[in-house]
Write a structure and sequence with these properties.
By secondary structure, this protein is an alpha+beta fold. The protein has nine helices and 18 strands. It has helices at residues 3-26, 33-67, 70-74, 97-106, 127-134, 213-217, 219-244, 273-281, 300-303, and strands at residues 118-119, 122-124, 148-149, 160-165, 195-200, 203-212, 261-263, 292-296, 315-316, 327-328, 331-336, 348-351, 357-361, 366-370, 379-392, 398-399, 405-406, 409-412. The chain starts with a helix and ends with a strand.
Amino acid sequence: MKLQELLQKHAAKCDEQQAIVDKAVSEGRGMTEEEKTKFNDLQKEIDALAETIEAARKVQDRSKKLDEPLEDKKVAVFADPSWKQEEKLDDAGFKNIGEFLYCVKHGDSKGRLKNLATSDVGIMIPPAFSQNIMRLQPEEEIVAPRANVLEQGDQPNAEFKVPYLQQGQNGALGGVALYWEAEGVDLQNIVNPKIKDMGLKPSKIAGLCPINNETLLNWSAAGSFIENLLRMAFIEGRDEKFLSGSGAGVPLGILNSPGAYKVARNTSGTIKLDDLANMRKHLLPQAYNGAFWIASIDAMPTLTTLTDGQGRLIWMPGNVAAGIPETILGLPVIWTGKTSLLGEEGDLILCNLNPYYLIKPGAGPFVAISEHYLFGSDKTVFRIVAYVDGQLWVKEPLKLKNGVEVSPVVILKK
C-alpha cells in the first residue's frame, strides 16, 4: 500500500471515530458500550497507522538523502555559476497597484505613467503587479494551472501555429510508424502521414472592476485588496471560457471541443458506476498518468455514495491539510459549479490537460478608466484587458490499433 493510501485510510478512520462521538453529543448522552468498544478499536487502528506512516516517511526521507550526489553537498550554493538571484520585476516606481490605479485616475505628478507601454485598450499594468493578477492558482481555477501554457513570444497577439497529427489509416499517429530494419535494407515509405497546423490567436478578455473612491484614496492600505479583486475576476472569467467557451472570439472550451470523446449515459438523470468505467475505457492511455475528474458540485451526493459490486465506496476523502486530494476510482476529483447540473451533458469529465490543452497568452494586462459609469455611486470603474486563447490539441477522437476510440478529454453525455 502506498503512503498516500495509508494517509487516506488514517483520515477515514479518524472521521469514523469522530462520527461516534458526534452522534452521542448530538443526542445528549454518553456513549454506549458498543460505541466505546468501537471507539477504542478505531483508536488502536489509528495509532498503528500513524506509526506506520511515520516510519514510511523516515524511510522515504532517508532514501532521498542517500540519492543525493555527494559532490553536490560539498559545493556552496553561490559557487554554482548557473545560480541567479530571483529577478525583481519592474514596478515602474509604484509602491503597489493601488497607487498605480490612483495615478491612472488622478494623474501622476512624477511622470511614471509616461514610461509604460500603451495601446488602444489602455495602459500596461507594471509586471510586478500583473504577474500576481494573472498568476495560476490550482486551488481556485481548474484548467490553466493544469494545462500546457505556451510562452507569450515577441509578438504576443500574433497567431501561433502548432502542428498536430490528424488521424490516419494506421491509427492515432496519423500513419507515422517505426520500422525495425536490418542494416543496409531500404526503409518502407511512411503510410498516409497527415500533418496540419492548428492556430492559436489570442482574443481580448476584459473585466470591469468597480472600486469605491474612498478605498482608492487609501491606496497604500488597499493595494493587496485591489490586486486580489482583479486576480479573482480574471480567474473566474478565463476558467469559464477554457471549460465551455465557443471558440468564436473566445477560447474553445474542452466541453465544446470536437476532439473530446463523449460517452453515452447508462441511466438518464444520474451517474452510475458503468458510466465511470466506460469513461476510463475511452481515456487516451498515455493520458492516464496525470488524469483527473471534473465533477459538478450538484453530482457530489451521487458520486460520494456510489459503490462497487462489493458495496465499497469508489470515492475516497482527502486531507486538505496534508495536501491529499479526494479521489474517485483512484483519480483526483475537482468539484465545481462552472459545469452543468447532474444529469446534463458535462456534469462529469475525465481528462488530462497537460500537454493536451494548449493556452496561448497574448499581450496585457492593460487598464483603462471609466469616468462616468457608477458616478452616482461614488465608485470608479477600471476596465482590465488582456489577450488569451486556448483549445484542445486533439481535433478529433483518436482510434487505437484495436479500434477503440480515445481522447485526453472524456465527457459524459446527457
